[in-house]
Specification:
Blueprint (H helix, E strand, L loop, with lengths): L7 E6 L2 E6 L2 H10 L11 H6 L13 H14 L2 H6 L1 H20 L6 E4 H18 L15 H16 L20 H28 L9 H7 L5 H29 L1 H14 L15 H13 L9 E2 L5 E2 L2 E2 L5 E4 L28 H18 E4 L23 E6 L11
Parallel strand pairs: 2-7
Antiparallel strand pairs: 1-2, 3-9, 4-7, 5-6, 8-9
Helix pairs in contact: 5-6, 5-13, 6-10, 7-8, 7-10, 8-10, 10-11, 10-12, 10-13, 11-12
């Protein structure tokens, strides 16, 4: 777009017109005034495979299935009451994050250790949603030091494999007759990743369904139970999609925020001081503290602003031919919006900052995603002092060539900072 020196461009790929938008003003026109027109999603090989034939919600084209699942999610699954009921499960997993890092520090022949913060953040967010979905932290036995086991690592890697390919360019998405050839190999990659995910998810789901049918369960204890009890829900596909929706954005923002702050110790110190002022050093920060942690939230939002999870929001597809900015848009045009960011505010009514998208196609779990992001970041800041590893001058902030993650996983030196070992959760 910079090379074209334009804020909006239309590229024709076979019979599809792909329109990319990088201007906040145009984005607001699109996402606010014409939200109903651009409320559908493109059909791709990866979205079809990941949703088991479009049985979910986020990637499903506009239609009865999307309306049905959106109603189920809004009224039965992602409700304020439901999220409140699962607070203890989320708290348990951020406790596990602290335990995991603390155990590494203590087992390293001293009081500090170099921590892989990408691994820690991704596994924490994975554990949070796994606990909320299946009431378990691990698919296997896990490890005594709190480290993820082979199963959890394989699962998270498979989730990110699917996410990388959801809207990656493949020729057969525009020339469907080429799909059987799988020229880029994406079909095989996504199919194998989904086979891994379903291999872990489906046995748990089938077992739980049987328990309800046999009368062994009377009250719901997690989101899986909520899906089973919800009328017209598509349990297996929808549960997988919840994993996709909650893993990448919070963990990516936490990793980038920590990288930026470690390189700028004065910012990290201000965030630490705010937590000390609001929470103190005799208890752990909780979700109820988030409204008063404005500086920590600002750091998280700045990470969203500077380091979005992808160059573009999820693409939208137009339905009837609209009048867009007094011009005609091709029928069934696909629009891709970049972050279009001017200010850091998740509640910006003028859509100048977008972290979870917005409108009909906006993320339905904004409250959950925001809480997960801030809690991971706040616990990392509160529980440990952080600095650049001794063999490095600064944290390398290079961006990966293939996506917008850090080029190298963030490794940083951690040292427990709260007084007394009794505050750190024992394993």
């Amino acid at each position: 777009m910079k090379e074209l020196d334009t804020d909006i461009a239309c590229i024709r790929l076979a019979n599809t017109h792909v329109i990319s938008v990088t201007s906040p003003e145009i984005a607001r026109e699109f996402l606010k005034k014409h939200d109903a027109v651009f409320a559908s999603s493109p059909v791709t090989m990866a979205t079809e495979y990941s949703s088991r034939g479009f049985l979910t919600i986020a990637v499903v084209p506009w239609g009865d299935q999307w309306k049905k699942m959106r109603k189920v999610m809004a009224s039965e699954i992602i409700t304020a009451a439901r999220l409140r009921s699962l607070l203890d499960k989320r708290t348990e997993e951020v406790d596990n994050l602290v335990r995991f890092i603390y155990n590494q520090c203590k087992s390293n022949s001293g009081s500090s250790a170099v921590i892989n913060l990408r691994l820690a953040a991704r596994q924490c967010t994975g554990n949070v949603i796994r606990k909320m979905l299946f009431n378990r932290s691990y698919f296997g036995e896990g490890r005594k030091d709190g480290d993820p086991g082979y199963e959890e690592v394989e699962y998270i890697e498979s989730v990110f494999t699917v996410l990388r390919h959801l809207y990656s360019f493949i020729l057969s998405d525009y020339l469907p007759w080429l799909r059987p050839l799988d020229l880029e190999g994406h079909g095989k990659i996504v199919s194998e990743a989904m086979k891994v995910l379903n291999g872990y998810n489906d046995p748990l789901i089938d077992k739980r369904v049987k328990e309800w049918k046999d009368g062994k369960r009377k009250e719901p204890e997690d989101l899986l139970d909520a899906f089973i009890l919800a009328k017209d829900s598509e349990g297996k596909p929808a549960l997988s999609e919840m994993m996709f929706a909650t893993l990448d954005n919070p963990s990516n923002a936490a990793e980038w925020a920590m990288a930026e702050m470690i390189n700028q110790p004065e910012i990290l110190q201000k965030a630490t001081e705010e937590i000390e002022r609001v929470v103190g050093n005799q208890r752990w920060v909780q979700e109820s503290d988030i409204p008063r942690l404005n500086y920590v939230k600002s750091c998280a939002r700045e990470a969203f602003r500077i380091h979005p999870i992808s160059p573009f929001n999820l693409p939208h597809v137009s339905m009837p031919m609209p009048s867009f900015l007094a011009t005609s848009s091709p029928k069934a045009a696909m629009f891709c919006l970049d972050g279009c960011i001017e200010e850091v505010d998740l509640t910006e009514t003028e859509l100048r900052f977008i972290s979870f998208s917005t409108g009909r196609r906006g993320c339905m779990g904004v409250a959950l995603g925001s809480a997960m992001t801030v809690m991971v970041l706040a616990r990392l800041i509160q529980g440990f002092s952080w600095r650049v590893p001794s063999n490095e001058a600064n944290i390398d902030l290079s961006v990966s060539e293939n996506d917008l993650f850090m080029a190298k996983p963030l490794h940083a030196m951690a040292k427990p900072r709260l007084p007394g070992e009794q505050l750190y959760p024992p394993y």
